[in-house]
Amino acid sequence: MLLFGISLITLGSVAPGLQKKFYLEAISAGALFSILPLGIIAGSLLFGPFADRYGHKVILLVSCASLFAGFQGIAYAPSLTLLKVCVFLFGLGGGAINGACNAVVSDTSKTNKGANLSLLGVFFAIGALGMPFILGTLEKSFSFQAIVSSVGYLTLLAAGLFIFTRFPDAKQAQGVPVSRVWELLNETLILLIGLFLFCQCSLEGIINNWTTTYLLKRTSISMREALYALSWYIAGMAVMRLVLASVLRHVSPMKIFMISFLLLLTGCTLLQFATFYFLSVAGLISLGAGLAAGFPLMLGFVGQHYGAVSGTAFSIVISIALAGNMAVNYLMGIIADRYGIQHLTTLAFTLIVLMLLLSLTILKKLKIVNKL
User: Fold this and answer.
1) Does domain 2-165+175-371 bear CATH number 3.30.470.20?
2) What pTM was estimated for this model as a whole?
3) Domain residue ranges in the chain
C-alpha cells in the first residue's frame, strides 16, 4: 500500500517537469494523467477474479515487476509514446497491489473491517506523503528523473517480502462463475458504493494531479512550496486514518461521514480563497482529513456483505472508482484549458455534494440490508 501511495502521487508531483520535457499543454497533460487510472482499472479488474481463483502471491509479484518498469519509464522514457506505455504499466501494477492488499486485510479481519482497512490506508498515505516531500527536498540536488528511478527500487524489496509471505488460500478454487459476476454487477448496494467511490476517487485524483498547478497559477509560492503543500494534504489523510483505525471501532459510520463532509467543505472553501501559503496548507490538510474515511468504510461494507467473493467484489467497486478518476481528470484538463485552473474548486465542490447524497443513500440501504 505504501508503494501504491507512491505510484498514485508521483505523476502529479513530477507533472511540471514532464510538461516541460515533452512540451505538454493542459489538455495533453490531462490525457497523460488519465492513462494512469486506466492502468489501475486494468490491474483492479484482473486482481479480483485472479485472487479468488489462485490466491494473492503471484499477482503481487507480477505487479511489483510492472511497477518497477513504470518507475524507470517515467524517469527516463525518451519519447511521449513510451512514457504513456510506462505510465500504463505503472498503473497496472499499482491497481493490482491496491486491490489485493485491501482484499487480504478484509479477508483476515473477522470484525472491525473498516478500522483495519483504515489502518492499512495509513501506509498508502505515508507513501503518497513521502514522494512530494522527497522531490521538494532533493529537487536542487538531483533531477526528478534520478529521484523517481531510485524510489522505484523499493518495488524489488517488496517483491522479496512477498516471496516469503504466506497469504490466505484461494477461496474459489474452481473460479468465480460468470453468472455470479453478473449478479454482483446488478446489486444495488455494489453500484451505489461504486458510484460513491467514483466521486471520491475523482476528487482525490484532481487534488493529487492539479493542486501544484493550481497553487502555482493562483498564488506566488514556489514549486517547492507547492510540493510541500501537497504533502500536508497527504499528512492530513494519514493522521485521520490513524485516528479512524481506533475511532471506527466505537463510532457510527453516520457520525464519521458527517465529520468528513464538514472537513471537505471547509477545506475546499479555504483552497478557493487561498491567496497565500498557510491558507492553502490549511485547506489541503482539511481536504485530506475529510477524504480519509471514504475508502476504508465503503470497502469494509463490501467485505462484510460479499465475503465469499470479496476479491471480485472489490474489483468491481474499485474499477468503477478509478473510471471516475480517469474521466474527471481528463475533464479537469479541458476545464483548465478553456476556463482556467481556478475552476478546480468548482469541480471539487460538485463532487463533494454528490458524495454526500450517495453516502446518505448507502447508509439508508445498509439499514434495510441489516434488518433483512
Assistant:
1) no
2) 0.80
3) 2-165+175-371
